[in-house]
Every structure is written in structure tokens, then in C-alpha cells.
DNA sequence: TAGATTGTTAATCGATTAACAATC
DNA sequence: TAGATTGTTAATCGATTAACAATC
């Protein structure tokens, strides 16, 4: 099963040249006159993105965002399994979310010391987010996926990706207001 | 209260030239030797993004993603208030989420005909998403914020913004795997 | 007025696209 | 072999940055 940069481009709304340039970046393995082997391509891209090995995640904050991430089916398929959830609210501790039971944040450091955790999902309100990030930093956490609606201050060693849903909502709002105008 | 492109650039990690170019796009109103009036700047940007008037939203799908959007505090502050939630699951109909009660999707067209709805948030599983989008299209909906993890086919008249959380997770995963490598 | 900082044009840089020899 | 399609270099395009006259 093969695919050409031409067809890949059509499906992804990209120029075929762009496709070839991009694939080349992670080591060309196409064949002239033939195209790319789909299975090999998928494997290479997966490896490139680190999807070839599991990445255990824990989620801090068992509110609606934390729950949504824990339940997102495609993450689990791709190896991003949530292995524990934490909350500081006593009322949420003990609650079942999917097949996990919410733990108290007091247990956080202990948990991190005992388990391999690749990614910490930060799904707490804006107020407590920076403090929690500093705490995670002290506990040796290296990668954080932040859903708190602010940009967090962190050291060079930490990798923090911020998800700001409002950015995408603002784009929608902007395009709504300017629809029908001549582009440019 | 004023601010210069210099300081704005420092705060936003942008080149001051970039800042000036960008602000100019929506009509320059800075003053030489002085900078930009912060209040005026905020108002102009707000207007540009359509934040000067409320945008009633409804959410389809009362699962964890739908609930998270309904509760996201900054949306409400910015005028994106959720005015109704729908689900096709009888068990969820009648449930309270914040101060809303989940309605059955059977009432959707009726609701849309009777109320001003600027944005429909699509927070249903991937399987039903395209079908629901077509239904919304027939009901005259013009703007959709899609959280279903697939790109939806839609007519030119419809504005559909896709939120794919996994994109951001893949970026995190990629950077994790390639950390410490010499950039470029 | 002198100093500061914009609006705007010009220069630079990087990213996208086109072209084509290499080769399967 | 002939046709197709890659890898790769060159050309184009757009976006970022620098520069500076205008002016508050």
C-alpha cells in the first residue's frame, strides 16, 4: 500500500512539494516512481512524535477539564494513558472518573517518586496554577500540559505547553465579525 | 495610561516592529513620542475580535467536554455565554450543568428558530459529529466550534473552527522526545 | 525645543512552491 | 525501457525585522 505526495497533498490540503519537504525532514524513505509506503510512513511519523512508546500521564484537577482529558478516547489509543488523578478538594477525593479514583494532592510527591510519569496535565483554576507548577518543578516533573488560562513561568528545563481555548474562540469570533469582507 | 510598542513587545515576546505592524492593521491610533493608550487599544482589539457584543452559544453534547466549555469562566466574561445545552441521551436530559438544564436534541431546531444563537459548540463523539453538522447547517447555523476529533465537511457559508487537543499533545510529545538535541 | 515613539517603507529572512535530474 | 515520482536545489512569496522621516 503506497501513496504519492500528490495524493497526500490533496487529502491534507497541502502542496505536494510541501509534503515531500516535510517528509524529508525526518529522513526520506520514499521511492521514486512509486511514492511512500503507508505503513512505513505511519511508523516513522509515530516514532518522530514519540507515539511508539507509552506516555503515562497524571491529571491535577478533577474538574470538568480534567475529566474531559481523562476520558478523551484517542489519547488512550495513542499511548497517553492517564494513570492517576489528583484534586485538593476533599469532596472530589475518592470520586471515580472512568476507572480511576481521585487522590488528594497531598499524595502527589509520594506518587511521583514511586511511579514513572511522563506528562502532568494541569487542569486547575488559574489562581492556583503557578503555585502548583512550582511544586511540580520541585518534584522533578519535566513536561506539563497546561489548561489553566494563563501562561506559566517556568525554568528552561521544564517543557510547558499551554492550551488556551479562548484563542480558538477568538479566531471564530473574529472570522464571524469579518465574514463577507473582501479577503486581504 | 499608555504603553509603547517596545514594552508591549517585551511583555508578549515580540519584536516592537511586529507590534506596530500588527496594531496598524486595525487602524493606527498610537501617538508619536507617547505610545498607545491602553484603554483605547483594549477597546479596539475587543471590537476587532467581536468582543464588544455578546455571542450567545449553545452546546451540543453534555459530556465532559461540553460541561467544561459551559463552565469555562473567561468565556462568560467575554460575552460568550452558553444559553442552552443539548444531548441525545435521555439519561442526560434534565441534568443540571451550572445553571442550565440539559435539553433533548429533538428540541434543537425549535430552539434555534426561537432564539438568537451565534455559535454552536459541537461536543459530541466523532461518530455522530458530521451528521449533526449537516443538521445544524439545514437549521441555518453559521458558526460552529467543533471539539469532535475530526475535520468536518461543510459548505462555504458555514464557519467551522476545529479544536484538536491531540495536536497540542503531539507537540508536547515531540518536544519531549527531542529535548536536548541541538535546535535546527 | 528636544526626546521619544509612532507609522511606514525598505531590507532581510524563512517558508512555500516550482522545477528537474536522479532513479525506482 | 518508459512512466512515474521522489529528493533536492532554485525561485517565489510572504512575514518579520530594521530603519527612519514624521510628529506628538
Summarize the structure in words.
Two copies of one chain form a homodimer. With 184 residues, the first copy, chain A, is of the alpha/beta class. Chain A is 41% helix and 18% strand. The first copy, chain A, contains eight helices and nine strands. The first copy, chain A, has helices spanning 5-12, 16-25, 38-48, 64-71, 73-77, 108-114, 126-138, 165-177; strands spanning 2-3, 36-37, 57-60, 82-87, 96-97, 100-104, 119-122, 143-146, 159-162. In chain A, strands 5-6-4-3-7-8-9 form a seven-stranded mixed β-sheet, sandwiched between helices. A two-stranded antiparallel sheet of chain A has the order 1-2. In chain A, helix 7 (126-138) links the parallel strand 7 (119-122) and strand 8. In chain A, helix 1 packs across helix 2. The model of chain A has no long low-confidence stretch (mean pLDDT 93). Chain A binds a DNA duplex (24 and 24 nucleotides) through helix 2.
List the helices and strands and how they pair.
Two copies of one chain form a homodimer.
Chain A: E1 2-3, H1 5-12, H2 16-25, E2 36-37, H3 38-48, E3 57-60, H4 64-71, H5 73-77, E4 82-87, E5 96-97, E6 100-104, H6 108-114, E7 119-122, H7 126-138, E8 143-146, E9 159-162, H8 165-177
Parallel strand pairs in A: 3-4, 3-7, 4-6, 7-8, 8-9
Antiparallel strand pairs in A: 1-2, 5-6
Chain A binds a DNA duplex (24 and 24 nucleotides) through residues 4-6, 15-18, 20-21, 23-24, 28, 30-36.
Amino acid at each position: 500500500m503506497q501513496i504519492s505526495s500528490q495524493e497526500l497533498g490533496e487529502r491534507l490540503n497541502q502542496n505536494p512539494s510541501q509534503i515531500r519537504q516535510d517528509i524529508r525532514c525526518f529522513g526520506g524513505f520514499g521511492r521514486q516512481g512509486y511514492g511512500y509506503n503507508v505503513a512505513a510512513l505511519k511508523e516513522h511519523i509515530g516514532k518522530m512524535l514519540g507515539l511508539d512508546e507509552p506516555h503515562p500521564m497524571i491529571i491535577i484537577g478533577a474538574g470538568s477539564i480534567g475529566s474531559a482529558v481523562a476520558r478523551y478516547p484517542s489519547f488512550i489509543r495513542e499511548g497517553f494513558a492517564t494513570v492517576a488523578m489528583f484534586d485538593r478538594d476533599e469532596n472530589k477525593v475518592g470520586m471515580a472518573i472512568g476507572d480511576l479514583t481521585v487522590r488528594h494532592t497531598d499524595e502527589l510527591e509520594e506518587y511521583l517518586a514511586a511511579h514513572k510519569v511522563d506528562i502532568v496535565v494541569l487542569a486547575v483554576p488559574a489562581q492556583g496554577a503557578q503555585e502548583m507548577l512550582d511544586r511540580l518543578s520541585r518534584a522533578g516533573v519535566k513536561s506539563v500540559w497546561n489548561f489553566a488560562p494563563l501562561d506559566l513561568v517556568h525554568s528552561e528545563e521544564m517543557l510547558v505547553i499551554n492550551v488556551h481555548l479562548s484563542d480558538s474562540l477568538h479566531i471564530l469570533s473574529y472570522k464571524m465579525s469579518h465574514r463577507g469582507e473582501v479577503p486581504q
